[in-house]
Amino acid sequence: MSITTNEEIHKFLEQAIAENEVMLFMKGTPDAPRCGFSMRTSGCLNALGVRYAAMDVLPDPRIREELSTISDWPTIPQLFVDGKLVGGCDIVTEMYETGELAELLGVPQPEDVEPEPPSVQPPTQAAPMPLENRLEN
Amino acid sequence: MPTTDELKERIEQALPGADVQVEDLSGGGDHFRAEVVSDRFQGLSRIEQHRLVYEVFGNEIGGPIHALSLKTSTPGGPT
Known about the structure:
- The complex is a heterodimer.
- In chain A, helix 1 (about 5-20) packs across helix 3 and helix 2 (about 35-50) packs parallel to helix 4 (about 90-100).
- In chain A, the strands form two sheets. A four-stranded mixed β-sheet of chain A has the order 4-1-5-6. Chain A has a two-stranded antiparallel ribbon with strand order 2-3.
- Helix content of chain A is about 45%, strand content about 15%.
- Chain A is built from six helices and six strands; from the N terminus they run αβββαβαββααα.
- The radius of gyration of chain A is 14 Å and the shape is globular.
- Chain B is built from two helices and three strands.
- The model of chain B has no long low-confidence stretch (mean pLDDT about 90).
């Protein structure tokens, strides 16, 4: 049985942020969000049709604790683009509506700007899973 | 349980002169939405603006205040 330390989680999160151009930390997954705010945020990304990695923070409370020490941001979801925190649900939704999110991600702004409900399609890029797998070992 | 008046007062104390509207989205005192207009936000990114408000409540966010949805702007309009 392996024990995952806070340092290992911290390192893993930093790596996930560095390696994934668009990285979303959320409660649940894009196809099964466990919180309305996470659902809205992944819904914005789905509506823009961008590739993104998503990680569920719920399997271990330390994921959220360590993430907040990295981002200095108290709530979930958290969206990172190019290694930088863009914001949570409010900021992402606002930026989606104004077209700033599309611009940041280099995709065209959809004509219908209402955030769609999360797509049933899983994200095209596999979510980083090894941490959760390790936690379950 | 925090009330909308309490949240409004605490934000106003931290950001003197700010125009603050707080509503209780759930009616249960744990999901709030605040609209804050303050000249302190001038020149700050959205992230920095929201951090200023989140800092007022520290660890209470995610605790007693399960969620605080924010909309921030400056008196001259969104930055």
